[in-house]
Specification:
Helix content: over 70%
Number of helices: 7
Order of helices and strands: HHHHHHH
Radius of gyration: 16 Å
Strand content: under 5%
Largest sheet: none
Number of strands: 0
Mean pLDDT: 91
Length: 139
């Protein structure tokens, strides 16, 4: 429906049904909420109604497992898709606070700096990331 036909409104409605069904039958399955959220957000072509539903799925995952860095990073990704750079930056910072070694959260924060035209800050952030990756990749 989504990939072949591009019926975003129908997909958004079906995702709403998925949220309701999961809330009823799998209310504690945070990994499942996250998995569906991430998959559909990548396929939706930044369609706002679909992203609204994927964000709802992700919020459910985060309410169950609030200290999961990956979920906060994913929220940052989805907020960036919606053009909400300052909110995305907050999500990436939260993810970095939870897991200081998260390269995905650091890269997300760097993409926020680039989106905000802070190229000098982004360059220094990239230098830090490069140094961090060099030290963590050593045996």
């Amino acid at each position: 429906m989504l990939c072949l036909e591009g019926k975003y409104s129908e997909v958004a409605a079906k995702l709403g049904e998925l949220v309701t069904t999961m809330d009823r039958f799998e209310p504690k399955a945070h990994q499942l909420y996250h998995m569906y959220s991430a998959a559909f957000s990548r396929l939706c072509g930044r369609h706002s109604m679909v992203l609204q539903q994927t964000t709802t799925l992700l919020e459910r995952a985060m309410s169950i497992s609030h200290d999961n860095s990956l979920y906060h990073t994913e929220m940052g990704n989805q907020l960036m898709m919606q053009g909400k750079v300052s909110e995305a930056k907050k999500s990436y910072k939260t993810a970095s606070r939870i897991d200081e070694s998260s390269m995905l959260a650091c890269l997300g924060g760097t993409s926020c700096l680039l989106a905000a035209d802070s190229s000098e800050d982004a360059a220094s952030q990239l230098d830090c990331l490069h140094e961090r990756s060099a030290t963590t990749s050593r045996p």
